[in-house]
Batch of 2 targets.
Target 1
Amino acid sequence: MTFRYIKKSYKYIGLMALMLMGQSCSDLLEEEVISNIGNDYINTPKGFEDAAKSAYSSLRNYYGTQQGITMTEFGTDLYATGADGGYKGFHFYDAQLQPTVDYLATIWDETYRGINVCNAVIERAPAATVSDAIKKARVAEMKFLRAHYYFLLMQQYGPVDLRLTETILPTKKTTRAPESEIYKQIIADLESALPDLEAKSKATDYGRATKPAAEHLLARVFLAKGNSTSKAADDYAKAATYASNVINNYTFKLLPDFASVFDQANQNHDEVVFAVQYTTDPLTNSTGNSLHLYFGMQYDVQAGMVRDILNGRPFKRMRPTKYCLETVFADRVNDSRYKKTFKDTWLSNNPGKFTNVFDNSKTEVTFKAGDTAIFIPGYEMPLAERAKKPYQVLVPSRYDEALFPVNRKFLDPLRPDRTYEPGSRDFMCFRLADTYLLLAEAQLLTGKVKEATDAINMVRRRAAFAGKAAAMEIKQADMNMEMLMEERGRELLGEQIRWMDLKRWGNLVERVQKYNPQAAPNVKAIHLLRPIPQTQIDRTEGGATAFPQNPGY
């Protein structure tokens, strides 16, 4: 069974707070009725359930969205910009990255809406006419979500306003809580939620938070805290414990084939620890998971091709860096992840004879329907060899901002037509391979190199081509942070995690300067935090004095 987020019924709970609204004081006097549901509805069994479900919906603002991918994959060592699209200041770290950029406020406002709904459910639970068991379960879920939201906010923006009670009336009194206080609350929420969350791999209603989801998040939180100014001596050990719990105490399994992790026909599989749900129902899917749009190259104007549902609508936003392709994915013999991450073949859906050929080894090509029209070999195939091929061959020397290897993880062939944007693919926030890699990182940082090697080899063996598992195993002497950073790149490419990985490791500036020529001239230490949205500062009593902007913006 799955449950659907209730997006409208309790939207008013989030809109109550001025800090969640980019409006002036005069706007507040012009009240707009957005719901006829009374304030006591939350006390009823259905109202309590609706409110709890609606708290999940803010995850859809971050995961599987253009603003989410912009703030997590742009400006890293693995992705560069493609030909089209905006918000490239997040990649170039230039003057475009200003406090007035709407994505900053969009993420901020919607995340605080989610937090306010969590606060409302937690505070009003005692009066709800539901069983004590349901109250405990829903409050635990809200604590998981509140912690999740605050962790995302703090990783992106640094110290933020820490609100733990429902904001019912507009207020302009906000402050930035210390990082240590926010970490303390995140951990307290998650640890107090553990006893009352479902202690199994899949929730009864698939999509709800579970105990292993909270433990996975705790592993991430303690790793981040251990690399922060709030660090404690046992942070890495605690991260290892929680990651081990997820691996050992439930029924999660690494799927035998890396490609099957992203099979849209089987999304609720044994590797998923926590996912944000999307659907094919346009009434409940809102803007959907739109990641299928952003990783595509311009295949649809090439010889033998037109846009279709299978190959996607290519917005040409995210282009893998040279480092990503040539170093991270250098092993194509033993490791299947290059082949299974990147789409390399396009079959002609527009047959005929063409002279507009990007492959300089030939002047024209002729295709029947279903013939190979484009092939990306992944290496510099010699000109003479390419000339023998009856199709266009895209080699690295011909890559540009419009033509490049395409990350296939998020393609969505279930869309009803070729222009349809709201995808239905679930977004895996936490999956078991990530848990193993978090465990390996925590063990490495506590000096347990053998254990870290064993953990990372679990992921590497799964990624091997048939018969190559032994060749994929690394030895203890090879286990170091560089290996770990590259392994996370190979396994989790594009999965909205890399920017926060680099931030956690403290090497964002170093790696961007080394591996991202577009961003290298501008990136500096201030970019470990995003600008606070100007709307937040403007609507705070006392302005920048009470709610100061991050340094450098």
Target 2
Amino acid sequence: MTDYGHDLVFGTFLTPSAEDPGRVVALAQLTEQLGFDFATVQDHPYQARFLDTWTLLSVIAARTTTLRVAPNVVNLPLRPPAVLAKSVASLDLLSGGRVELGLGSGAFWDGIAALGGRKLSPAQGVDALAEAIGVIRALWAPGGSVRLDGEYYPVRGAHAGPAPAHDVGIWLGAYKKRMLALTGRAADGWLPSSPYAGPEKLPAMNAAIDAAAADAGRDPREIRRLYNITPQFTADQLAELTLEQGMSGYLVMGDDPEVVRRFAAEVLPAVKAQVDAERARRAAAPPSSAANTPPAASTPGIEPAATGTVASRSGRPLPTGLGVTPTPDDGVRLSGVTLWDETERPTGPAPDPGRAYTAAQRASGQHLIDVHDHLRSELATVRDLIEQVAAGLTDPGAARSAINAMTMRQNNWTLGTYCESYCRVVTTHHTLEDTALFPRLRRADAGLTPVVDRLAAEHVVIHDVLERVDRALVGLVTDEKDIDQVRAEVDLLSDTLLSHLAYEERELVEPLARLEII
């Protein structure tokens, strides 16, 4: 089993079709709105039907705020590495550090030659790529003159710089023996595509990369493993690839917005939840050598018991051994409308101040906060979209479409993503808290029943607020003067949702850890 421990990242792999340029940019914007990390674009300069990849990436970076971009992968023979280094660094600076670099040794050599590029053999292509990596890294380290001997890309006294805004990763699209060895020796990441390297081929390829890394004195875990995948991959398959093959970045191929939405709603959160749960379980498991060592003073995987409690930022005392901090309600209210009385919210049983928790139990509580943070992030995106409409930067219809595509619109409230993994629910389109989690909490601890009932009632209120936002967006499409009404409804959504999330974390983080309802 090989899990290199990298955080999971997700993205899209887009075709730079020139037939409808606006549609490609809109797909990248949708990628950001749905919570993906990356938009990547294939690079085939000799293809007359395609936009120039680097120009397209620049526009995408300018039209988004958090999305990271990367060529997937650069056709190096038509993009000299010295100029490419400056292009990458420039866009990284202009975008605030949101660029990574996928590189390939070249393909479709007749097309390359037709544009004036040098036609190389496969072996020469690998040698040229190795030279190019050295050139790019040297020119990203400003402060002197760069001189590099080389058969393909000699540099004779070039001034280095500018440096990128962050440490840009160089990912190689590699399949054959020498390319895999180069990846292990010199790259930051590996970026194969599933049609050319199916899951059954990954173990041998990973082993080749690891061996080359070790020979070069590198830790194989330094190399991120990304994977261009077709939409047919399931959450279970991707979780297994992460936990067994070390893959940690998945870029879904295709240009259908509905496919992207489905992947964001049904696959992406489920993969994250399954991987988090299994990593927590493994972290809590006794080491394999435990049978050969004396018994420990305490149960393996259990932190020493805490003495007393600490006040969480939400104001509710929590055991010091829990090690998970709920997000507080900051008390800020934007709307003059109040839909519930927060002073009437019930409180659950007080936790045992001396209780100890396993790593897996703590992960259960933390995962609730992580899911909530995703919803908080989506709410910030809603507010940003509304301001874009107000400023004339986006179309009201596009804003409404984007908001409707978010996971907040999928009846996947609060613990929905959490439950779908642990309860193995196939779809995220159910109200999982009301139908799966809440009944379990009631059965496990009757003292939580008033809290759970209140949370379920607040779900109904929040659903009504979402409908109000949607109706306001419909009105905005026909009359842009209605932007103030949209703002008012989004303010009300902010007040209700953020208050609800803070209350739920305050009351359920500790019970989720204690009761192990998974």
